[in-house]
UniProtKB/TrEMBL annotation:
One of its GO terms (molecular function) is hydrolase activity. Keywords: Hydrolase. This is Metal-dependent hydrolase. Pfam families: Lactamase_B_3.
Amino acid sequence: MKVTYYGHSCFSVLVNGKHILFDPFISGNELAKNINIDEIKADYILISHAHYDHILDVERIAKNTGAKVLGNFEIYNWLLKNGIENAHPINPGGKFDFDFGTVKCVIAQHPSSFMDGSYGGIACGFVLTTVDGNFYYSGDTALTLDMQLITKFTKLDFAIFPIGDGLTMGIEEAIEASKLVVVDKILGVHYDTFGFIVMDHQKALSAFTKENLNLFLPKIGETIEL
């Protein structure tokens, strides 16, 4: 599958001709200043939780593209209140079928609140089963043994994990998470955007390689095959 990285935890996966965008945070990211938000394609947008660094640009992109936006029930209601009518609720444990495949919502160990401090519902991750392959985006989670349950339902081709530490998993935890979900291809996200999550890239790459795992750290705006 073709994966395009837009910085922080925002990336797009092309599946069966459909562009699936995750956690759009671009306009507030100085590292992504060369990305033209209005040129981003999206048929679906998946939101892992309500923190501003995951939802900042969802309204703009959703209204530009008409994409269907998925999030927990609190995010779903927030989307409707903000004029995004093509919204779809999904909570941990639930799954829905779409024209590209199935989205299953899973638990993430992380807080969630909107920019005004109001409750953003439970934080989530997503497991996508598609005609082109299967993958897991964990969202901003801590390492949890719940991850091993994913393999009971889905054989994954790759996973997307936060690796910047401090507010999410770091390098060591992401390596263990990779083993729990039985993948050897990992896209690293949620690093470098802010001073307290700046990461040593070579250290991360070496640590994953030592465990026979392939860590991908594409440049912002770069498209890779996974």
